[in-house]
């Protein structure tokens, strides 16, 4: 048997595998994106039952196999239950997980992407900035970490001055200060549209979770009040 590994990471997705097992995709700081099997994780008595759900962040004990890892233990540090109990935040969060899955690779350092994902989920539950700006900043930073962000956007004369300034601030902010500002009205809308267009162009199309997120943002969902969704002053 291979040596025991201790990896810090977040569960991006979880799938049933047989009657009792689960297959999870974890974004880890040390080894990038990995696939792991959790034997018996679907049993009500399993220690891994709660630890193999999306959004779970912590320390994972694994053994490395030829094609996948085996998850044997997890020390959960954050479940992000507040995100999961808010439908709107959940939609944003699932989108963030999918983007992180798309841009992560195995055996590559993913410390910055993992940190971005963690602080972005935390930012969803703060009063400011508004969630659509959190999304746009997440998209910008994800592209930047992958070396795919066009820096000339900050000098695009067709954009409002406030939008160009926001792009510059975000590009040169460290992650801990990323969500330290907000935008108003037209500049906010323009900034969000620019980042959305850029990530769609870079990814070659829409993410699956984006459809539900856009449906929610458009106001087509009727259960807004019961899900804690409310108008936000910008």
Architecture overview:
The protein is of the alpha+beta class and about 230 residues long. The protein has helices spanning about 80-85, 85-105, 110-125, 130-145, 160-170, 185-205, 210-215; strands at about 5-15, 20-30, 30-40, 55-65, 70-80. It has 2 domains: about 5-80, Nucleic acid-binding proteins (OB fold (Dihydrolipoamide Acetyltransferase, E2P), Beta Barrel), CATH 2.40.50.140; about 80-220, de novo design (two linked rop proteins) (Up-down Bundle). It has a 5-stranded mixed β-barrel. The protein starts with a strand and ends in a 17-residue tail after the last helix. Mean pLDDT is about 90; it is low at about 220-234.
Strand portion, in percent?
Answer: 15-25%
CATH level 1 name of the largest domain: Mainly Alpha
Q: How many distinct helices?
A: 7
Q: Span from first to last CA? A: 56 Å
Pick out the low-confidence regions. Answer: 222-234
Summing up helix and strand content along with how strands pair, one would put the structural category as alpha+beta
Spatial order of the strands in the main sheet? 1-2-3-5-4
The CATH architecture assignment of the largest domain turns out to be: Up-down Bundle
User: Biggest sheet, open or closed, and with what strands and sense?
Assistant: 5 strands, mixed, barrel
Count up the domains.
2
Q: Calculate Rg over CA atoms.
A: 19 Å
H/E series: EEEEEHHHHHHH
**Oligomer description:** single chain
Which whole number gives the mean pLDDT? 91
Gross morphology? elongated
Helix content: 25-40%
Total number of beta strands: 5
Q: What is the CATH T-level topology of the largest domain?
A: de novo design (two linked rop proteins)
């Amino acid at each position: 048997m291979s040596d025991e590994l201790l990896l810090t990471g977040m569960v991006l997705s979880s799938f049933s595998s047989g009657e009792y097992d689960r297959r999870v995709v974890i974004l880890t700081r040390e080894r990038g994106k990995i696939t792991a099997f959790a034997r018996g994780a679907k049993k009500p008595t399993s220690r891994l039952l709660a630890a193999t759900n999306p959004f779970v962040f912590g320390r994972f004990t694994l053994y490395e196999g030829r094609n996948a890892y085996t998850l044997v233990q997890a020390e959960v540090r954050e479940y992000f239950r507040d995100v999961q109990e808010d439908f709107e935040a959940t939609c944003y969060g699932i989108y963030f997980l999918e983007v992180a899955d798309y841009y992560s690779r195995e055996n590559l350092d993913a410390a910055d992407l993992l940190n971005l994902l963690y602080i972005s989920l935390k930012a969803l539950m703060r009063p400011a900035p508004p969630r659509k700006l959190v999304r746009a900043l997440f998209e910008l930073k994800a592209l930047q970490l992958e070396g795919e962000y066009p820096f000339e956007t900050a000098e695009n004369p067709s954009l409002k001055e406030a939008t160009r300034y926001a792009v510059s601030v975000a590009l040169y902010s460290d992650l801990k200060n990323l969500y330290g500002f907000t935008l108003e009205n037209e500049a906010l809308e323009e900034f969000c549209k620019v980042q959305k267009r850029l990530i769609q162009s870079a990814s070659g199309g829409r993410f699956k979770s984006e459809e539900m997120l856009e449906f929610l943002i458009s106001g087509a969902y009727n259960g807004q009040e019961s899900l804690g969704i409310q108008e936000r002053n910008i």
